[in-house]
Amino acid sequence: MIGLKTLTSKELLVWMQQAKTKAYQGQVANRIPQLAVASREWFAVHIWDKTGQSVSLGDTACIFSLMSVIKPFLLLYLLEHLGATTVFHLVGVEPSDAGFNSLEQLIADSGRPRNPMINSGAITLASMLPGRNASDRCQRLCQWLNQLAGCKLELDRDLLASVRLGTSHANQAIAQYLATCGYLKNPEIALDTYEHICCLSGRVEDLALLGKLLACESGWVRPEHQYSVNALMLTCGLYEASSHFAQRIGLPMKSGISGTLLAIVPGQGAIACYSPALDRVGNPIAALAFVEALSQGLAG
Description:
By secondary structure, the chain is α+β, with helices and mostly antiparallel strands. 47% of the residues lie in helices and 12% in strands. Helix 1 runs antiparallel to helix 13 and helix 11 (223-236) packs across helix 12 (242-248).
């Protein structure tokens, strides 16, 4: 496979322009009022490779929330602090064939979350974070990530208020069912923590820096934990479309409804994109088109 550092800015610019044309096939998320004001025309990309080199293109000044892209890093934090046995006792590792906020699948699975990349799994993991309350738990996770990755994530309090305004009855029902089945002790704090961490925000460069925690072996995190998170991103990171894109692109990826997309090139680096227009599953349509073009370029 060709290395990330061999890609030229000209190639990347062509792929970006081609990918942006796909955005008009998607829709910006409208369940959360503050996300709904984003433009389908926005597109930003930042690529970081293991040599420390990077390239940025597009609307790189945009600040956006990570939303579900925080899930791999929530998992990574808990694997590092609690260990795999404790974490996977409560959350499974199987792909989902239903929507990311499906209560029906959770019921069919007797209340055990199918994997950490869907809402039921992430809400369960959020309940395991240390701290007095949701704000404290979010702050500890944010500080850990900023320290290790060198990024500058911050909690977007205006967005958090907007999330609360657009109350997700699906997530509330999931949290209550998890509690009924014994997976949560305090569903209110678990859901509040989940909403806090999804509102951690930054620029596309910050997202790429986060990706380096999963891309290459280092003294930051254990290799076996990197492997576990990357494996789950590959098989579960794009919800019910994960297997489709695993076959087409073959990279561990995670999306968020704000338009975020993080792709890991194991052993080489990370590709971070921001493009608010989503497909019907909830994945950023232009960002996926860009990463697919780039992956074909890497394959040479």
